[in-house]
Structure formats: structure tokens, C-alpha cells
Sequence to fold (153 residues):
Amino acid sequence: MKSIRQKLAVTYATILTLALAAFGLTVHLADQSTLAAEMDRRLQVRTAQVRLALWSQGSPPPADVLAGSSPNLTENQLVPNTAYVQLVDAAGQVLGASDNLRTVSTPLANKPAKLAPGVEPAFSDTILADGMPMRILAVPLYANNTYVGLLLV
Fold:
């Protein structure tokens, strides 16, 4: 038979272990949500930088002009050289991509209906063909209140 001292030691050790586990889980969840919010904020800032680099006035050209264009999305034009950018027209055709995405296509670029006109910018988590995880901000583009395409950053 165990003594009361042994039972108390086991009980206290169990309580301490559970308390530490709960604290660790709370810290982990708080950090995870903070990091996700920071990543989303940085994507929004990066998207604003890309829009300004592509269109100095911040809005894209009309659909017929955009569809006939081949925007230069080189890393020199986009301020941060780590930007992954694709420009997709309303039909889902990739019009341009940053140098680091020339050989791959973001999964959303092939599904423009997923972000139909009238939908707000949306975040999406995906995995590229090479296994690299990526968080994408898809921003519908409008010119003169007409949906003209999608900017994926």
C-alpha cells in the first residue's frame, strides 16, 4: 500500500504537468494566431506595393487593355525580391508572373470562378507542386466597376 506522501506527490506532479501543458497550449495558440495575423498584414502591404508598381494610380486598366498586355513582373519592378505574384485575367489566363513563379502556377490561377466578381480579397493556404506551402492573397481587380482579373500575391 502506498503512503499518503507518495499519493500526494503523484497528485501534485499530475496537477503540475496538466497546468504546464495547458499553459504551453495557450501560448502556442496565441503565437500561432499572432503570426497568422502578421503574415496576412504583410501580404496586404505587399499587394499594395505590387499594385503601385504595376499601375501607378493603383487601379488596373480596362479588361481589353489588360487582356492584351503582358505586364512585366520582374523582381526589379516589384520592390521586394521575395514577392510571388501572378496576374490573371477574367478568363483565368495567366498574363504575367514574377520570375520565381515562371515555371509553376498558383492553384487559384486555374480557378478564377472560385473568386468570382464581387468577392472580397481572400486568403488561401495551398501547397505548390514542389511541396512548398504558400499563403496567397487573391485580390479581384476592377476597372470602371468591371471585373477584369485577379492579382495573386
In short: The two ends are 66 Å apart (CA to CA). The longest helix spans residues 4-54.
